[in-house]
Q: What sequence folds into this?
């Protein structure tokens, strides 16, 4: 069936796209994987999230292995954050049962927009400062 | 160096705190931990952008493993589907890292800012 090949090809494209985001930004790729499982494989939300976590395991392993070769990883921090996250997930699941999730999501979304805005402003400022005083090694030198 | 001395040397609490916050948000909003971990590593722990992204990936090894174990009871992990996405994603992560090495840190932060805003907008609009 041609349809299955189409689905496999789309899954591969979504996988590569999520992986690129993972490598670039250090996120898992779930932001791409979960909707892919929902729309392409007709999974319900919970199965999609569970399967997305499984797909993230090899991405995180290979990505971290590649980055650690360059000395980019603070392993102590990584292990502590992983342990902390285990506690946070348990507490978060309890809170989610008791509070209005839609409102919480909007508040959290607003915080993310502010954080993202701050990142954009600070990086643009740094880029402008760089342009104003170019490093001596960069660019063509004029006598 | 013995372990207690090593523990005294650096302040470890921020990292545990960042993990807890990431886990909280992951469970409450169904978003991955990386979106929370990377900005906090840069803002609180003052890691440079590339190191923050790389260290976040390393933390995700543990969180995704723990997540799969936790979900084993409630959601069903479809391992075939996970491989169909996961294997191409491994290729993707290698491309992403290669790209990241060539990207100046400021552009990396700029791109991440756009990415975070997109996720924020999604949460605000669809709850």
A:
């Amino acid at each position: 069936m041609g349809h299955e090949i189409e689905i496999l090809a789309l899954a591969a494209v979504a996988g590569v796209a999520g992986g690129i985001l993972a490598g670039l930004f250090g996120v898992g790729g779930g932001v791409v994987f979960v909707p892919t499982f929902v729309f392409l494989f007709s999974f319900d939300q919970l199965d999609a999230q569970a399967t997305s976590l499984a797909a993230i395991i090899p991405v995180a392993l290979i990505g971290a292995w590649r980055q650690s070769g360059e000395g980019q990883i603070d392993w102590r921090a990584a292990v502590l954050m992983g342990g902390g996250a285990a506690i946070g997930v348990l507490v978060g699941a309890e809170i989610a049962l008791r509070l209005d999730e839609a409102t919480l999501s909007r508040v959290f979304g607003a915080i993310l927009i502010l954080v993202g805005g701050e990142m954009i402003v600070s990086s643009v400022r740094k880029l402008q400062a760089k342009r104003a005083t170019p490093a001596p090694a960069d660019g063509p030198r004029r006598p | 160096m013995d372990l207690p001395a090593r523990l005294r040397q650096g302040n470890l609490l921020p990292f545990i705190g960042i993990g807890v916050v990431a886990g909280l948000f992951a469970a409450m909003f169904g978003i991955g931990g990386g979106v929370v971990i990377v900005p906090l590593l840069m803002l609180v722990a003052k890691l440079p952008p590339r190191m923050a992204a790389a260290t976040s990936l390393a933390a995700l090894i543990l969180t995704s493993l723990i997540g799969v174990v936790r979900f084993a009871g409630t959601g069903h992990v479809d391992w075939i589907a996970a491989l169909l996405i996961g294997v191409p994603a491994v290729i993707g992560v290698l491309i992403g890292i290669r790209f990241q090495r060539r990207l100046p840190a400021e552009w990396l932060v700029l791109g991440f800012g756009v990415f975070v805003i997109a996720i924020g907008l999604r949460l605000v609009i669809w709850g």
